[in-house]
Amino acid sequence: MSFTADRLLLFGATGDLAQRMLLPSLFALDADRLLASDLKIIGTARSSLSDSEFRNFARAALEKFLPAERRGQMAGFLNRLSYQTLDATKREGYDELARKVGKPGRGLAIFLSTAPSLFGPTIAGLAAAGLTGESVRMCLEKPLGSDLASSRAINDAVAGAFPESRIFRIDHYLGKETVQNLLALRFANLMFEPLWNAAHIDHVQITVAETVGLEGRVAFYDDAGALRDMVQNHMLQLLALVAMEPPAHFDATAVRDEKVKVLRALRRVGAGETVTGQYRAGAINGSPVPGYDEELGKPSETETFVAIKAHVDNWRWKGVPFYLRTGKRLPKRVTEIIIQFACVPHSIFAGKGATMQPNRLVIGIQPEENITLSLMAKVPGLDREGIRLRQVPLNIAMPDAFTGAVRRIAYERLLLDLIEGDQTLFVRRDEVEAQWEWIDAIRQQWAEEGLKPKPYPAGTWGPSAAIALAERDGVTWHE
After folding, report:
1. SS (H, E, C) the chain
2. Is the dihedral of CA 244, 149, 466, 297 positive or negative?
3. Cβ-contact 417, 242 below 8 angstroms
4. Could you tell me if 336 and 220 lie in one domain?
5. What confidence tier does 154 reach under pLDDT thresholds 50, 70, 90?
6. What average pLDDT does range 419-444 have in this prediction?
7. What digits encode the pLDDT tens for the residues 331-373?
């Protein structure tokens, strides 16, 4: 059932995500008149606040986290807001919440940003209060479990009240403009798609590097680690978008069907195809930073870095390695995808002394959105001592290419899609479970091998073993 919601209910409305992302995103949509004039936004959390106190809380968040040039007039947006205190574990509070929400004219969208342990009681409370009907859709913020079993338990609890067609699982990477541009690059340009296969691509690299450490996520991160925090969701979604077959249509069903095929084709990682690490004291941008165990306040075997050599066993990608790398306290903050093309089969310039390098496509996602294609070109000259060739980059800086277009953060798009009911950029249950199956197998292998994280100094690109993981195949990480 398709509808544009006229009620948006935010669980965890006083939390960090709401302050940094949700409220600023909703305000930006409102400022650009992309929200229906009758949309009401109801916040709920444990904190005891009145409507006016919540509006003041929201105003402070907007002033802190929105750039000055995007703030504008806040009064109209703040008047959309109301608030209801709720202890999600207590059933009796949900009737009062339902009265606060009122009877939607078109429908209700619920954004659930709470601890996974609260998903079950929250769904039960919503159902008891009549807030799970056909005109209600549910959005879930990660983490959706810590393994396949816990993920299934969460999904079962949600599925007891909502069909899959009304469940929206967020992976905010899918809302990033350059991630979506990956699909346009592949499927809207004839020059790329015929070459996007094992016959023409040597390997693929995906890097998600962070310079930060724990940043207030001590308890969560030490339980999760880099594999579950980053690889299970963001990196596997990027891999699926790179490797997927062309969908018949750009809609939720067709796109997600193709991503699931990729995730199910992932080969179980073999011995020696993963490297884990944990940062020690070092320096980031010239400033000293403590080691993970120092930040945590105790010894730990949680990985803050992981590198993986993955394979997609299907006709398109047979034999093409996908190198995945993510970690904290690395030299720079960057998310990028590298498509390394194969060498030309024969160089006509070799007899003239020229050396050639294969073409490389670099898709930058953050902090800067850009696309760079390296091409071979002749160095100007009379060539009396031989022909010289050199790589030259073709750069497309996305902000420069679309000057005047509004650059939006991922949550703006995803919240608007939630309100309007478009699931294309949200993750389906079978995707989540396919991701967890692959991740659980890696963790099982680590346990069987007794694999422990190797130390690496903060400000470096992880353990030396991660470099060797690629270099033994003749591959160098792009840095």
Report:
1. CCCCCCEEEEECCCCHHHHHHHHHHHHHHHHCCCCCCCCEEEEEECCCCCHHHHHHHHHHHHHHHCCHHHCCCCHHHHCCEEEEECCCCCCCHHHHHHHHHCCCCCCEEEEECCCHHHHHHHHHHHHHCCCCCCCEEEEECCCCCCCHHHHHHHHHHHHCCCCHHHEEECCHHHHCHHHHHHHHHHHCCCCCHHHCCCCCEEEEEEEEECCCCCCCCHHHHHHHHHHHHHHHHHHHHHHHHHHCCCCCCCCHHHHHHHHHHHHHCECCCCCCCEEEEEEECEEECCEEECCHHHHHCCCCCCCCEEEEEEEECCCCCCCCEEEEEEECCCCCCEEEEEEEECCCCCCCCHHHCCCCCCCEEEEEEECCCEEEEEEEEECCCCCCCCCCEEEEEEEEEHHHHCCCCCCCCHHHHHHHHHHHCCCCCCECHHHHHHHHHHHHHHHHHHHHHCCCCEEEECCCCCCHHHHHHHHCCCCCCCC
2. positive
3. no
4. yes
5. very high
6. 95
7. 999 999 999 999 888 876 776 766 778 889 999 988 888 888 8
What average pLDDT is seen over the chain? 90
User: Is residue 183 pLDDT above 60, yes or no?
Assistant: yes
Q: Which of 169, 185, 212 is the last residue of a domain?
A: 169
pLDDT of res. 375: 83
| Same domain, residue pair 164 and 203 | no
* 234 annotated active-site: yes
Q: Please tell me which residue in 234, 249, 311, 346 is annotated as part of the active site.
A: 234
Instruction: Domain of residue 227: give its range.
Output: 174-409+427-471
Q: Are residues 338 and 386 part of one domain?
A: yes
Asked if 411 and 25 count as a contact pair (C-beta separation under 8 A), the reply is yes
Label residue 378 by pLDDT band (50, 70, 90): confident
Condensed to tens digits (0 to 9), the pLDDT of residues 231-283 reads 999 999 999 999 999 999 999 999 999 999 999 999 999 989 999 999 999 99
Same domain, 244 and 353: yes
The pTM is what?
0.92
Considering 137, 169, 201, which residue would you say is the last residue of a domain? 169
The span from the CA of 13 to the CA of 10, in Å, is 6
Structural domains of the chain, count: 2
Q: Are residues 145 and 272 both part of a single domain?
A: no
Residue 301 has pLDDT above 70, yes or no: yes
Residue 401 has pLDDT above 60, yes or no: no
